[in-house]
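Ticket #4471: structure export looks truncated?
Reporter: QA, pipeline team
Priority: medium

Steps to reproduce: submit the single chain below to the structure queue and open the exported record.
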Amino acid sequence: MATPIQLSTLGHRIRHHRQAHGYTLDELGAIVGIAGSQLSLIENGKREPKLSVLQAVATATGTDVTDLLSNEPPNRRAALELELERAQQSPVFRRLGVPPVKVTKTMSDETIEGILALHRELERRERESIATPEEARRANTELRLRMREQNNYLPDIEKLAEKKLKAAGHTTGALTHRTVSIMAEQLGFELIYANDLPHSARSVTDLENGRIYLPPASIPGGHGLRSMALQAMAHRLLGHAPPTDYADFLQQRLEINYYAACCLMPETASVAFLSQAKKDRNLAVEDFRDAFGVTHEAAGMRLTNLLTQHLDIPLHFLRVDGAGAINRVYENDGLPLPMDVTGSVEGQVVCRKFAARSAFAEQNRTTEHYQYTDTPGGTFWCSSQTGTTTEGEFSITVGVPFDDARWFRGRETQKRATSTCPDEACCRRPDAELTGRWQGKAWPSARVHMQMFSPLPRGMFPGVDDGEVYAFLDRHA
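Actual output as written to the record:
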């Protein structure tokens, strides 16, 4: 059965062809064998016509049934009316409790456009209001669980990346800046490094003039610049439209990050490298990192795409800040992780016994640190390495269940810890003696991050100030 919008579109197309041939409702109705009033109901989307009636209308108006059944509005006026009808059927409008506007023949196109502009603003504000921290966490959790079901693996993007690399002439080794520039040129873009990018944007793509603007400097080795350029290209290659809600924004962000990782660490070469390392029982994040000239974090995260899918090894990945909060996470090996009531892990504080936190106390931070951890979910082996940015310390951890540690360098480590989290007695409950000594006698002043209270800039893309972006493009146009 056709939807109301499909019936309305069909009605508009019938009316368009009827009027183009100069028929009144009664005249065309007489030709096709129905009353003019019945034809009016069909044109207004109130009644679904029989196929025999459609065939008769098509014959009388010199068209065919396929054309009448097209989902394309026949003209601009019909498109406006259909968009308004669709908007007034939305839950956002219905919650207002006001009657829908009835379109008449005498209503101008400008009036309908004005009403539509109000509807679009209403929908934009609705999308903005639902992007609360709780909604963002829920959307992020749903995406993480969905990707876990797929082994964090997106085969279509893997194939696309290999195709584009081949077209740019890349065969082996680390992806160079020159090759990234060639990939951009093949897509019709020029890479330009600008020192006045908007504060709210990592990169800006000028679709009109074919330019991708990037910051002039990045982390040592330039991995960040290559990755940002590839992410900007990915939006075009993957056919992304402006995100409709926060979940759509997160999905797009995941896909562009995934594409960049596929280009920097191509599937075929990466799987060959990792398979040999597994055969040698010498898997190591740092070797994978160095082989492709990327960051430790990028190499660790790329393992989540490939180890389970190709080497049948479940694993977990953690990026944890100096305070112990989880910034980025993936697991499909059953590692017990802290969660809030929405099921979100990001932002939660990881157990103090995990290497992701204990690694901060290590003196040597240039190499990986290994540890076995006994947990309520089993025993896990992991490697952790720490780093520092302008925002503070962080650690990158990649780990696997005990039985799979045999494939990794560092499996001989004697370091072992026991975590009983989420049991409060593990590391969250204060020492009883110290609690008795100081409870009620201390009043610390919390360090509150202002971003907790700052709303995201309004705009089509969450967190991006449209005004800044447009002003930037205008300066460089």
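Status: closed, not a bug. The export was complete when the record was re-opened. Leaving a note from the reviewer for reference: Confidence is low (pLDDT under 50) at residues 449-458.
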